[in-house]
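Re: the 370-residue chain
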Amino acid sequence: MAIPDISDTLASLEQTLAGIEQVLDVPGLKAKAVDLEAQASAPDLWDDQANAQRITSQLSLAQGDIRRIEGLRRRLDDLVVLVELAESEDDADSWSEAERELDGLRRDISEMEVRTLLSGEYDAREALVTIRSEAGGVDAADWAEMLLRLYTRYCERHGWPFEVYDTSYAEEAGIKSATFAVKVPYAYGTLSIEQGTHRLVRISPFDNQGRRQTSFAAVEVLPVTEQTDHIDIPEADIRIDVFRSSGPGGQSVNTTDSAVRITHLPTGIVVSCQNEKSQIQNRAAALRVLQSRLLEVRRREEREKMDALKGDSAGSWGTQMRSYVLHPYQMVKDLRTEHETGNTSAVLDGEIDDFIESGIRWRRTQDVRS
């Protein structure tokens, strides 16, 4: 990269980072962290568990944002010095190091900029993701399992802890559905852009005539509920069934009636959990899933009321949203943002950062227009 190009890029990164610091209000964020630290050190903090969880969660989030923004500022300042040194000494090794750091810093600042766009009511929450096979028979079940791997690989790449609550296996291959929780702040805001129908076109590995098959799978992303959400579920409104876990598992997971299925009678919502060996743990996890689904029902009802008041007759953008074509050519394309790539194997291995970033930016423009 030529010297003028590097200088222009550094100036652009400085402008972007300054904008991020302004949006996050770093001085205000630090003051908030100090106040939260004082509250977290109170001896009676855990007398009110709901309030304690809220305080410690907000403190962890604030401290993480501060560390990240300060780290980016330090790296940018150090890179400016490195470029000046490379220029003054005309040192090839220093130039190579500067270009490598510039690429990494540009990516990390862009990710932080996207993070500032996550300002929705529930964006800072952890996420509850459900994948379901739809039209396409055994190919759709196999496609649902491929998507499960895609998202768990994405989490692994980012070092995000996740927990699979329930997997319903199809008879021949793949899965009927799977539900897992992503346990990091802003997981919901980040992954909610993935909600919708995902379409796969390929030569079916299950067709002995080698014909092309189109199959579909749905991705649902919900915010994990907190105690402050007040989703009350009367015991009379639910039916709880226990059963033996099915599918791959081994050892004691398949030998006791530890799996739990909860039916919410007023809405007909059914959730299940069979990941834990303990029936009590599975019941608690299933209730968390049910609360998240009921929270989404409440949000949808409120949104419909607002749309009625605004006279908004437009449908949701979260229907068919991405196409994955493996034959006769290789391409993954987002149908909302028009972002696409020919590297299908990387996408199926969890490299979807560019799709998520472009989706979040696109969603922000839609929110501004509405």
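Confidence is low (pLDDT under 50) at residues 249-253, 309-318.
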